[in-house]
Description:
GMP Synthetase, Chain A, domain 3; 259 residues; 9 helices; single chain; 5-stranded antiparallel β-sheet; 21% strand; SH3 type barrels
Amino acid sequence: MDSNVVRAIVTAAxxxxxxxxxxxxxxxxxxxxxxxxxxxxxxVAARRRTTYGFLLRMIVALVAIIGIWSVLxxxxxxQEIARAFLGSAAVLAVIAxxxxxxxxxxxxxxxxxxxxxxxxxxxRITVDGHTGIVDEISLSYTxxxxxxxxxxxxxxxxxxxxxxxxRSVDDPRxxxxxxxxxxxxxxxxxxxxxxxxxxxxxxxxxxxxIYVQVGDVTEKTAWLHVVAYAPFNADVSQVASEIREEAVxxxxxxxxxxx
Length: 259
């Protein structure tokens, strides 16, 4: 086997080990730091986790890039290409152009998010019509888990260039909505009362702030729009299912459902 190939394999293995060990040591140091502080304020702790998580990704990515470059520099062809590229007068123009493109733009926006922290891990936010919990702020994207259980990835540039609502600041509750049909001609007042009582009987019903409004009216059906504010840790889809099940049964017993 070519000696350069052997050197490349060994170098790659060494750098891979360095990345793994560095990540483990940083996580260990941060965990010890957190335990020593014994922070009682979850907001302050979330801010530190947000900043640390982003910095950890940057450090690991930087070390990985250095490792990859070390492996590639073993081969003469790669060395010549690198020297020619770095020695050219176009390097500054290329770097300036890349800084304005999406990848590095997302990276720079991620740095702003990590340090200015308009949002932090665990916050419930609304951005571009999507509402969810911030699970991760990576080098390129911010990941949300929506109230419907979907996984949304928002580019970091979008997070710092558009208006977003941090719902954890004033009202951390989660929104649950359910639409229910009512027979046209039936008493909507009775239907609203029955629906309200049924929704309050679901598990955790005493923790819900429930509102029932009359929505759209079609040729044969009137629709009730149920809005409930659930606790922050509630399963929105499960709560909606339970409200729908209880309310439909109650409306059916009262003969208020469409034929």
